[in-house]
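hi! just following up on the protien thing from before. the input was this:
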Amino acid sequence: MNKKAAIIIVNWNSYNYTFQCINSINQTNNHEFDIIVVDNNSEDGSGIQLKEAFNNIVLIQSDKNTGFAGGNNLGIRYAIDHGYEYSFMLNNDTVVPQNFLSPLIEYMESHTGIGMIQPKIYFNHDRSLLWNGGSYYNHFLGLTYTSNHFFSFFKNIERIKKVDWVTGCAFLAKNSVLEEVGYFDEKFFMYYEDVDLSFRIKKAGHTLIYHPASVVYHEAGASLKKKVKTREGYLNPYVHYLNARNKIYFLRKHTAVYYLPGVIVFSFLHSVAFIGYFVARGRFSKLNSFLKGLKDGLFEKKTNLN
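and the predicted 3d structure came back as:
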C-alpha cells in the first residue's frame, strides 16, 4: 500500500446515494486514496451491487448493522491494518467536487499537532446553503452547535480555524491519532459519536481544524428519512431516541462537575420544549421514542459509558 488515505463510506440499504457518492469521488483529480465501502448488513443487496458497479472499491461486508460508529470502525481498522496514513470518513449521502481532499492532507502535513480536519459542507439540494462551517460547544449549557446558513455570521466561515468538534459527515483523521485515543465509541451507534471522538482527541492534546478550501455537498439524514410525509413527519422516530439518549451519554462522559448546574437546567428545559412540540403536533411515536431515549440515557450504568 503506497496511497496516503482510505476514504471510508458506510452503506446501509442506500445504493443510489452511495453510488452517487463514489461516482463523484472517481471523477476527482486526486488519486492518492482508496475507497473503502463498509456495507452494514444491507437487506437490499446494495453492497454487492456497488462492488459490481465499481471495481476500484474495497467492499467490507458486516454481518450485522453496527450503526455509523461501528461501520466506520470496521473501515478504520482495515485502513490501519493496511498501512494507510489517513482515514477520511465520508457520509454516503454526500457528493464531492474536484480537489476536495488535497487541501486537507496538505494542511495536515504542513502543521503539527492536528488530530482531525474537516471541510466546509453545503447542502446538496441547494449548494448556496451552508450545512456546516465549523462546530462548537458551550460548556455552560452542554450545547453543541454549528455555523450554518442560519448562524454563519457568528463565525468566520472563510478562514481556517480551530473548532471544538468535527462533524462525522466528512473529516480527515491521522490513523496514528486514532490508534492512540481509540475509534468511535460504538455504544452511540449514531449521533454524538463524532463529538465524543473529537473531545477524546482534544483531551489527548491534538487540535481540530476547519478548512474552507475543501468543500463537500451533503443530502443530510437521507438514510433515516421517510419518502412520504406521515402524521409523524419525514424523520424516523428512532432518530429522536438516539439523539435524546446519546446527548445524555455524551454529557455524562464529558461534563465537568462545575458545569453541571447549568447543563442540567438547560437540558431539562430543552427536553420539556421537545415534549411540548411533539404533544402539540400529535407526534406520539416520536414522543415515546424521545422519552425512552431520555430514560435509557439517564439510567445506563456509568461504567458502560467509559
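The chain has a mean pLDDT of 92.
Residues 224-300 form one domain.
cheers
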